[in-house]
Amino acid sequence: MEYLYRYVSIYADPQNNLIIIPTGCSPTRGTTVDLDLAVQLLQPYTDQELERMIYQIMDECFSVIPDDEDKVTPIEKLLKIKGYSRAVKERRFISFLWDIDEGYIITPTKKVPRQGYCHMVDKSFRLGMNPKEGEIAKAIREAMKLSTP
Fold first, then answer.
1. CATH number at residue 48
2. Domain residues for 132?
3. Fewer CB under 10 Å: which end of the chain, C or N?
4. Does the reported pTM lie above 0.85?
């Protein structure tokens, strides 16, 4: 099945170790949610390894139907930490989107107390439909620098 977009959640810790999570569609809410297919990419990793992992995770988007009854998030499960706020403490969030009309868009975020991660749309990296090798990794690394925990 072809989809009009693919969205990947990226969390970076202070050492730039990454947790990368594909998304899918909630059957009851009709919204995009993280799937229980989270993976870690630990330092040191090359730009090529980062891009390869991103493409693999993009392929996982919409691959399973999420369990809407499960109240534990994929990042909590992966880290074995109870509570989303505790799991993402000191982590930056980077939004990774591929859209059928605009291509790849990587957006840094800032964490705002009692609001969560707010997208810094004015600082988005718009790479188009066919970015050159290394451009996605470079944009993710720049977004990691701009994002705040």
1. 3.40.1590.10
2. 5-146
3. N
4. yes
